[in-house]
Every structure is written in structure tokens, then in C-alpha cells.
Fold each of these.
Amino acid sequence: MDAAGPDSGAAEMSREGASSIEALSRRLQSRFAGLLSHCAIAFGEITLELPVQHFVRVCWALKDEPEFAFKQLVDLCGVDYLSYGRSDWETSETASSTGFSRAVETEDYAAHAQQQARFAVVYHLLSHTHNQRLRLRVYSDNDPPKLPSVVEIWNVANWYEREAFDLYGILFEEHPDLRRLLTDYGFIGHPFRKDFPLIGRVEMRYDPEKQRVVYEPVSIEPRTLVPRVIRPERQQPPQAAPEESGDA
């Protein structure tokens, strides 16, 4: 049995994994010099940010070149950065780091929105050959947001891109069949933008005089609902029972 114990073996594997990630990061920056917006390592993972004009070219290289061989697209998802790092309703730090917010375009977010594009698409890639993972992030400056489709590169992206289109309204150019995937055919808007009214615009009821269902404007007062948060600092410790006097 190894005298160093199992902990030393785990530490050695961790160091080997870190060195492998750093080596991959260097190869990526060397191969795609001038084509990347940013390359970062965080939490043991590499994230590449790409400009739209170079995105498809880099994706083909990541898949086809033996040095990388990222043959599998594991996931693709949209991200809305409109209120990223900001909050409408502040809460205790123990409850949430950013509070609660809705992705509604208000004047407060105007300056923040000018700093970067609101929508991005994130791609997670896997190389079975080298047992490595990679994350790509691409921002869209268009309105509505628009990015090239990668269905021709990774066929599995077909439904992933339809999902991002349905929930975020992100368009994918040259997608073979860009239709809604999760919402109803007549649905208006995109749910994950969270810009819909909290209480709706109309309400319905049965009118006994007209003997039919009628639609009317919403009659309740709009209000903001904040989830209940139990804060440990507000919980009082139980009071000790008073000691009885020894005098009878």
C-alpha cells in the first residue's frame, strides 16, 4: 500500500488535471490568436468568448482538428444579461447574493445595457478523444438577437437552438426548421425574457345575464411579491426558565 495514502493520489490527479487545462488553454490561444475575444480559466473550466464573425470558423476547427476533436455538443443555452449583477429587491446576504429581479427594460438598466449585448448563447463541448471539456460564449448585438446556426457542425444543436429561440427569442441563421419547441403555437413573446406582466391584462368570468364567458380588464391592484425569507439572525434563542429562590 502506498505510504502516502489516498489523499496524495487525489492531489496528484488534481494537479495533473489543472496542468492539462492550462495546456489546452495555451493551445487554444495560440491556434486562434486574433480570433478570440477572451479566454479564461475558472473553477477548473475554460471559457472562450468569440466574436460572431469568427464563431463558425472556430467551431469547425474545434471539431475537425485532431488536436482538439470536440466532436460532441453537450448543451446549448441562451443567457439574458440585462439585469446581470443588479437587483430590484435587495435581500439579506444569507438569502441571496443578488436579490430578486425581473428582466424588464427600465431606465435603471439603460447604462448597464450599453456596456455589453443583452443576449448571449453558451455552448458546452466535449472531446472524448482527449477527455476534455470546453465552454464557448457568443454575444449577439442584433435586435432581435441573431447568431449563426451550428446544426451543420453538430446536428444535435437542432432542438437546442429551437429551445433558445422559443424561450429567449434568439434567431439562428440557416437553421433548417426554426419553430417553437415548448410553448403553444399561438403563444406571444418569449418566457425566459420575463418581460410579461405579473398579473396579466384581462380576466374572465361567467356572466349569468349574458349566459356566456366575458373578458374584462384586470380588477386587482398590481403588487410586487417578494418570496418569504427566513433569516437566522432574527430567530431569538429560547429563554431560560428563571431560577427558583431557595427561601421558602
Note: Strands lie at 38-42, 45-50, 72-80, 119-127, 132-140, 146-148, 171-173, 202-207, 212-217.
Amino acid sequence: MSVPHVTELNSGEKITAGDFSSATTQPPFRYERVRGRLVVLAPRGPEHRHVSRPFRRKLNAYWDAHLDVVEDVDIEGWVNITDETERIPDICVYLTASNTQSAVPSRVPDLIFEFVSADRSDQERDYIDKRADYHAIGVKEYVIVDRFKKSALILTWQEADYAERVLPATENYTSPLLPGLEVPLSEAFSS
């Protein structure tokens, strides 16, 4: 059996978990598998990279300084949601305290960060679909950084649903899961 090229498949076509995990892809496009079907995602633009830059920089520095707290920071991680759905979050953080024997993509990240894109379907995916997916697998904190609203929505896991906290551009992102980390949202939203 030959390795599939997802570039030969159209968005919406059926793809197995095995084929998805071994497929060759066409950069700069990104791919997810939702309900057994391929989803082709647009490349990250410069605006997306600008908004995520302070988070990438601060999270990596925090990881380096706190190896006892953070086991890994994964940019464009890979997460199994169900047997039929696999997501590629912008940033996944894995804490040492919750180290399990599971490996990526079966290991659940403790924190996930998504940076909202301009396309309406991308926004719905971040705010609705991924919110439900990440809650279902037990992601402790899901952070949606929205450059269009100039705010961040911090979702903290609770049994029924996530608890919500909105941070405006004038505040710093902090988390009890990452003691001492501060990311000024003003850096993410500066022109």
C-alpha cells in the first residue's frame, strides 16, 4: 500500500486514521481529520504569526526556566479527539505533573492555545467545534486569542462546560497552571 498524498484528496473526502497519520502533505497547508473526513486549512498568514509570537516566545522561555512544571510546548501539536477526529492546535502545553504513558497524539495537552483567523468557518471551528472537542477530552485550559476582538477568551475546564474569563488587550494572560508566566496581550495586538 502506498502512502497517500493528502494533496490528492479534497477537503471533505474520507480518510482513515492510519492514512491520515502517515500521509504526505503539501506545505504551507495544514490538515485535520473531522468525523473521518479531511479538512484542509489555509496557511498561517503574517497576522496570525504576529499575534501568536509573544505566546510562543514566553511559553518557550517559561518551559526552559521551569522544566519541573512544563514537559513540552508543541507548536501545531497533534491531538486525537475521537477515533474519527484529529485536531492540530496552534500550541499545546504538556505539564510534568500530568505526565502519562500516552504519547502524542493520544496524550491530552493540559493547555491549548488557538489564534483566531479571519475566515468565518475558522472562527466557528475555534469558538464552537474545538471548544466542545477540547472539553470532551479534558483539556484543563483552552485559550482563544482573537485579534479581531482584541481579547482573549480563557476557558477553564469544569465538568459541565468550560468556565469563561475574557481578557481585554490591556491585561496580561496568566494561568494558575503556569505560575509566574505573564504574556502582555498588548504585544499580541500591537500593529
Note: Residues 145 and 152 are 4 Å apart (CA to CA).
Amino acid sequence: MGLCVFDFDSTLMDGETIDFLAAPLGLQDQVAEITQMAMRGELDFFESLIMRVKLLEGLEVARVDEICRNLPYMPGAKETIQALKERGYKVVVFSGGFRNATAHARKVLGFDADFSNILHHRQGRLTGLVGGEMMFSQSKGEMLVRLQQLLDIGPEETIAVGDGANDLSMFAHAAKRVAFCAKQILKEEANIVIDRKDLRELLNFL
């Protein structure tokens, strides 16, 4: 048995969930700029998350859920997850994004579990606050070690796939370190680089 951990935004999903959520508020460009700075490693992930979620204050939860049900998944995402599971891998998603998106994606794409953050809301609208399992730059690496211990799977049986700086902490604990359409900071630490937007490319390296 092996373990394959995917980032969600810009890895399994073609874009950044928070950018889509900011669009109805007319704040997509402002949020996207902060996102890109964080993914390039120019801004602390926790600080960037707090800044971006604050901008979403007032957005209706029903609108959040509608947007998250209609996110565009990366070409080959479902087929790749199915192929990994057929080969005996547990497939898990770690996302610095939000449960509204990852929980729905789990039903559509078929991965085994998702760990992400939760948008706080009151009376049907976002409060601009956030909490959860993936708040910090080191969160993914720490959670990966916990899963490896729980499943009795070592780094040599682990694949980590991501695109940005907050995926770096996973790479220290995975034999296959996959930079998928990634920022340069992640490519420099990867031993597999995929620049084509098709996750089925990953299957060539198994």
C-alpha cells in the first residue's frame, strides 16, 4: 500500500478556490495577487490566508457552496485518482483552501479523505474568520507524518503533489516529490516536474 497526497487548488482543481469566491465581491484581482505572493513564498501562508478570508466578509454561504460545486477540476484528475487507488494507494487531499470545496470534490473525484480549512459564518454570511487543519506553511508536512504513522506507510511509499510554497513541507516526507504546473520555489525541491495541465502525466512516474 502507498500514500499519495495532493494539494487541491491549482493541482486537483484548475485555479484557486478563494479567487473564485472573491469574484462576486469584485475583489478577485486583489485576492489573486495575495494568493500568488503566498504561492511564490514571498508572503507567510498563514498571514496571507487571514488577509484573503477577511476580504470575503459578508459573502452568502449559499453562494460559497454554489461556487464550490462548480469549480473546474484539472484534466485527468478523476482518472488519475482512480488509477492510483487501483494500484493500492490511499489518496488524500491537503488544502489550504476550504472544506466547502474539498468535501464536494471528494464525492466527485473519489479520493479517500480531505483535510482543509473552515470558513466561519453567522446568519448565513461569512464573518471573515477562518480556522482549520491547514492554516500554516508547515501544516501539510505535519499532517502527512501523522497519516504515515497511522497507516504505517513510510516516505519511500509516499507521493506528494503540489504547485506552491505551502506544499514544500510535504516534500521532506515523500520519496516522489511532484511539482505540478508549479511555482519555481517548488520545482527546485521536486524530483518530478510536470508542466502540462494533465494529471495523467503523473502515472508515467509510478
Note: The mean pLDDT is 96.
